[in-house]
């Protein structure tokens, strides 16, 4: 985890890679294109005809880029220069805008299920806000979700402990080398617990008692109170998040951790607004 990330200087949008692709993700995606697409194509070639790779490159040239086929790099008449064509694509790829890269990823994913699967693994490892679903690139982290997290992380002297828990939750979620979804969920719910105890004016009390105290102050809706009690209970029961692991526990996923971070951030923002913090 980089220093700028640990102290909250990198925007959440950048950390979760929404509307952006950093160098690590770009390199990983290009490697997947080479390994899972180009290098897996057959090298067999009929006499004076393109190989499977050459035909595939010609398809990219005319269907994705929309170029005239007589302008593709050639070794001789009707034989595509695979090396020079891939080099052209590489130069374009590393200069392209983030959304152009996803256009290209989607184009390839519609042609190769194996590529879509390996590409999704790369996207998850680099904490991208997108996944390939049924051959289409789908945004899984919305602008609204990012805004909720960023708003909850705004510096507030009264809520330093809340911010500490939220930043830890984001760090555990966004650690590319060793993501810790279990502890991310734990920190997210701990942030909610922290602000609840603060508003309830009982720093050593229980979460349920804090919500009851909050209800008396700001008229917390009964369904909302039950919902967060249920979420708090989930962190006690699932995956050994707040207690020791058992053999039956299910390992939390990126989606689980992101849901908790966004949901807890939204609830924190709600409580801050209602309690005028």
Automatic annotation (TrEMBL):
It holds the Pfam family AbiJ_NTD4. InterPro entries: AbiJ_NTD4. Residues 1-154 form the HEPN AbiJ-N-terminal domain. It comes from the Bacteria. This is HEPN AbiJ-N-terminal domain-containing protein. It comes from Flavobacterium rivuli WB 3.3-2 = DSM 21788.
């Amino acid at each position: 985890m980089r220093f700028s990330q640990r102290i909250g200087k990198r925007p959440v949008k950048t950390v979760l890679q929404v509307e952006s692709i950093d160098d690590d993700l770009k390199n990983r995606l290009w490697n997947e294109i080479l390994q899972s697409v180009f290098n897996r194509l057959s090298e067999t070639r009929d006499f004076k005809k393109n190989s499977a790779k050459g035909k595939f490159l010609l398809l990219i040239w005319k269907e994705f880029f929309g170029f005239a086929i007589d302008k593709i790099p050639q070794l001789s008449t009707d034989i595509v220069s695979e090396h020079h064509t891939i080099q052209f694509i590489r130069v374009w790829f590393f200069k392209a805008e983030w959304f152009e890269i996803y256009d290209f990823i989607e184009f390839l994913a519609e042609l190769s299920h194996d590529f879509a699967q390996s590409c999704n693994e790369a996207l998850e490892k680099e904490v991208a806000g997108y996944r390939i679903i049924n051959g289409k690139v789908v945004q899984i982290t919305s602008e609204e979700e990012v805004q909720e997290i960023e708003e909850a992380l705004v510096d507030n002297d009264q809520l330093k402990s809340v911010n500490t828990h939220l930043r830890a939750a984001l760090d555990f979620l966004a650690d590319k080398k060793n993501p810790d979804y279990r502890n991310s969920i734990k920190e997210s719910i701990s942030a909610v617990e922290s602000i609840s105890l603060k508003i309830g004016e009982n720093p050593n009390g229980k979460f349920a008692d804090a919500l009851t105290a909050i209800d008396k102050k700001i008229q917390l809706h009964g369904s909302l109170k039950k919902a967060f009690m249920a979420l708090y209970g989930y962190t006690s029961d699932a995956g050994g998040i707040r207690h020791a692991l058992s053999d039956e526990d299910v390992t939390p996923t990126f989606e689980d951790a992101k849901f908790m971070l966004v949901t807890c951030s939204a609830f924190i923002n709600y409580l801050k607004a209602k309690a005028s913090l």
